[in-house]
Structures are given as structure tokens and as C-alpha cells.
Inverse folding.
């Protein structure tokens, strides 16, 4: 959509343009030229000039959240007889178009605007007002019969409206988008863990051979990590259910009716089917965004989990002939252009980059959350932009990682057996029977003569018979001792 042309000057009456592709509106600051089909008005047209910064558009989920908010506030304003039922019906019909996404093209602003998000709030007000005017049969831009400020923004300020939209968007995205994907990924991991339970392999600590375990046990650690991440995310969004609406500019509720925040919050909960409530202390909810900082901490922790999981898969699938090669990655036909047949860990790499971005976003959110001055945190747009980006990226990356990597992951049983048979780590099981010194000596003999530990113990040193060795140093007996059943979700 073309940007508006702004010409400052004294207030004039609205005039019709001879060019059918544009319309002209006048406000306190003068005349503004706007694309004829745009639902936004003069305030947004000016913002497009003053905040022509970057390409990071305000996220769709924030616009949807604003539609929900304006629908709820309009409903309550009508119930309190602050606007007429006829006006309320027009506004509510327009908010439905905002919620559905039908009007997304009319929200051109980037994130880089005033720290309270005032320009986006006005963008929403103007779009809803003009759409309502159009529904009524009126002329867009006339502010009749619906005024963006007096009607759509009634009983609100940008401070409490944008803060409320932040919470609605963040809670909806985590609950409705990220968590379902994460639970599916978790269940795929559990399926693989159960499938690989009896595959005994060499463990590694410090990247050095360690006590054996099963491949299923190894994967069970990831299942538990994801379980923990799901629990943390569920807990972290509890604070997001507390809404600042009704606090207006600084938390006192000036220009909002008594109990407006409580009534609107109940209405938002009814619309979204999520347990939103009015924030107990509106001063806190406008001056800080600790709830979002805390919740993004859970997203950051999830990124750490996924980075560990992904890098472990890269290591275990490395080679596959000249590395560890214990896992076989699915071939998605998107690999090396110069080395035919080479299967790269491309889904892991994409996920790793997403995790790196989320960790960076957490730094931005932490700084922004600690900033702002006195009664208002003025970093709202950048906080919610980074929060929602983290949520969207994690959801998309997890979905594809589960589908194109985890679901097709297979064990390389021959390689796993080869490593297990060549490992000297089963010596751990011998020490209680033949003593530490004798065991250490057997390991040295095996290394010196390049023979197996079994041959060193039973043939070279004659410390045990073959039957005794097999009974004592059986890797499976070392593995299946106190394995805890995976927690079912």
C-alpha cells in the first residue's frame, strides 16, 4: 500500500481530491493525503513519515489481540451506556474483520515507533472506525458516525490498551501455537525412546567413552527436558493472564468507569476462552513488563534445551562412516550440491539458528524490561515484537524438526555394536570383583596389545574365566538397573 503524503499547515476543512486513487484528510496539524482505499487515517499517515524505520511490521498476533480488546471494550462501553448500541454494533462488526485478519493490509506501521505503542493503537482505532463507517454506508475519513478516539478508544489510553494487547497476543501464541507443537515433538521423542530401549551403546562424558546406557535411555533425557519446558511455559504465562486494561495512562483509572478493567477482562476471557483477569495493581502493569520478561525466560530455556538436543543429534549422526555415526538422519533431498549422497543435519542447523535468535531476543527483552521511566515502560513494541518472534520461530522450527528429523531418525546398530565391543569402559563392572588395581592393569594390557578387554582379562592375565567375565561385564546388565519409567503426559 502506498504511503501517505503529509503537508503540515493550519487546520482546513476536508476536501475531495480529483485523483480517485487518493483522499485528503485534515487534522489539528494540517492536510494529509492518504491512499483512497486505506482504512487508516491521518494519524497513521503522519506516523508513516515520522517512524519510517526498518521493515519489522507490527506482528499479526498483536493486531488480532487489539481486535479482541476493542471488541471487549466496546461491548462494556455499550453496557454502561457510554456509547449507543447502534455505534457499538458497527464497531463490533469492524473488530471482527480485524480479528479475522481481513484488514491486515491496513496496518503498515513498523515496530519502531513511540515506546507506548500509541501509533499502533491509533492505527487500530482508525481502521476500525473507517471500516465501521463503511459498513454504515458513510464516507471513509469523515469520522462520522464513528470517531476513532471518542468511540473506538473510549475509556482507554494507549498505555493500558497496548499493554493489554501484548498480554493477549503472548498468551494466545504460547497456549495455542507453541505448546501443541512442543507436545507433539515430546511425544515423538518418547516414541523413539521406547523404540530404542533395548539398544545398548557406549555412553560419553567429556566426549570420552563412559559407562554404557541404552539409546532409549539417552533419548529419555530429552523427553524429560521437554516435559520440564512445557511445565515452565504453562507456569510462565499465568502472569500474562493479568490485564492492565482500566489503568488508562498511569494506573489510576482516570477516564475509565469504575470496574471497567474487571468487566473488560471478563469479556476478553469470554472471547478467547483463556482465563484473563484484571491486574491487581495497574501501576505495576503499566510501569513494568516483568511478566513478559519472566515468560520469555521460559522460551529461552526451551531454546537451550533444543540447542542441546539438536547438537547431540549432530554429534551422534556425524560421519557417518568417519565420525560417531550412531544415528542415521533422514535424507530430505536438500543436501550437498557438490558431494552426492551426503546427508547434512540441515533441520538441526535451522533449529540451532532459531535458538540463537531466541537467546538474542532474551537479551533485548531483559534490557527493555529493566528500562522505561517511572509510571511507564516505554519499550513495549520491541518487547512484544521479540517475544512473539521467539514464539513463532520456535513453533515453526520445532514443527519441522519433528517432522523432517526426529520422526525419521534411525539407529545405526552395526556402528553402535562395534563401539560397544571395542570399548574398555566395561572395566567399571570388573573392579568390584577383581579389584581396582587389577582392573586398571587389564585395561593397560588391552591398550598395549590392541586386544579386547575380555581377552586381556581371560587369556593374557587369566583373572576370570570366560563365563565369569560374560556374567560380570555384560553391558546390558550394567544398563538396565534403575531406569525410571518415563513420565507420561
Amino acid at each position: 500500500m502506498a504511503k501517505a503524503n503529509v503537508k503540515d499547515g493550519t487546520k482546513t476543512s476536508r476536501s475531495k481530491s480529483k485523483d480517485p486513487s487518493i483522499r485528503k484528510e485534515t487534522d489539528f496539524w494540517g492536510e494529509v493525503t492518504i491512499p483512497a482505499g486505506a482504512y487508516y487515517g491521518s494519524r497513521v499517515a503522519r506516523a508513516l513519515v515520522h517512524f519510517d524505520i526498518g521493515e519489522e511490521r507490527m506482528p499479526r498476533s498483536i493486531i488480532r489481540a487489539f481486535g479482541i480488546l476493542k471488541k471487549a471494550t466496546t461491548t462494556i462501553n455499550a453496557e454502561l451506556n457510554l456509547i449507543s448500541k447502534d455505534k457499538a454494533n458497527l464497531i463490533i462488526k469492524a473488530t471482527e474483520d480485524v480479528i479475522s485478519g481481513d484488514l491486515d493490509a491496513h496496518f503498515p506501521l513498523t515496530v519502531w515507533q513511540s515506546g507506548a505503542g500509541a501509533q499502533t493503537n491509533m492505527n487500530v482505532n482508525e481502521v476500525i472506525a473507517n471500516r465501521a463507517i463503511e459498513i454504515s454506508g458513510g464516507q471513509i475519513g469523515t469520522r462520522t458516525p464513528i470517531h476513532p478516539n471518542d468511540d473506538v478508544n473510549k475509556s482507554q489510553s494507549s498505555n493500558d490498551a497496548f499493554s493489554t494487547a501484548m498480554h493477549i497476543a503472548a498468551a494466545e501464541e504460547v497456549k495455542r501455537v507453541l505448546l501443541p507443537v512442543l507436545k507433539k515433538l515430546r511425544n515423538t521423542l518418547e516414541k523413539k525412546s521406547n523404540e530404542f530401549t533395548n539398544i545398548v551403546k557406549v555412553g560419553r562424558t567429556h566426549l570420552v567413552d563412559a559407562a554404557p546406557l541404552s539409546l532409549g535411555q539417552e533419548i529419555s533425557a530429552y523427553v524429560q527436558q521437554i516435559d520440564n519446558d512445557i511445565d515452565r511455559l504453562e507456569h510462565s504465562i499465568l502472569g500474562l493472564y493479568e490485564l492492565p486494561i482500566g489503568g488508562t495512562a498511569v494506573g489510576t483509572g482516570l477516564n475509565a468507569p469504575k470496574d471497567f478493567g474487571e468487566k473488560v477482562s471478563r469479556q476478553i476471557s469470554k472471547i478467547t476462552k483463556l482465563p484473563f483477569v484484571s491486574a491487581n495493581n495497574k501501576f505495576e502493569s503499566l510501569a513494568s513488563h516483568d511478566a513478559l520478561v519472566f515468560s520469555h525466560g521460559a522460551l529461552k530455556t526451551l531454546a537451550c534445551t533444543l540447542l542441546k538436543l539438536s547438537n547431540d543429534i549432530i554429534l551422534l549422526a556425524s560421519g557417518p562412516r568417519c565420525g560417531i555415526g550412531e544415528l542415521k538422519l533422514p535424507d530430505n533431498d536438500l543436501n550437498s550440491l557438490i558431494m552426492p549422497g551426503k546427508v547434512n543435519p540441515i533441520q538441526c542447523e535451522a533449529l540451532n539458528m532459531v535458538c540463537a535468535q531466541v537467546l538474542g531476543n532474551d537479551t533485548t527483552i531483559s534490557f527493555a524490561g529493566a528500562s522505561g521511566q517511572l509510571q511507564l515502560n516505554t519499550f513495549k513494541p520491541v518487547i512484544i515484537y521479540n517475544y512473539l518472534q521467539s514464539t513463532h520461530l520456535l513453533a515453526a522450527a520445532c514443527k519441522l524438526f519433528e517432522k523432517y528429523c526426529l520422526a525419521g531418525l534411525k539407529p545405526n546398530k552395526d556402528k553402535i555394536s562395534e563401539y560397544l565391543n571395542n570399548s574398555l569402559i566395561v572395566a567399571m563392572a570388573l573392579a568390584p570383583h577383581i579389584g581396582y588395581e587389577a582392573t586398571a592393569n587389564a585395561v593397560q594390557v588391552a591398550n598395549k596389545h590392541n586386544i579386547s578387554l575380555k581377552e586381556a582379562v581371560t587369556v593374557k592375565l587369566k583373572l576370570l574365566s570366560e563365563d565369569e567375565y560374560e556374567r560380570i561385564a555384560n553391558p546390558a546388565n550394567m544398563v538396565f538397573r534403575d531406569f525410571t519409567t518415563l513420565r507420561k503426559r
Residues 6-17, 483-489 have pLDDT under 50 and may be disordered.
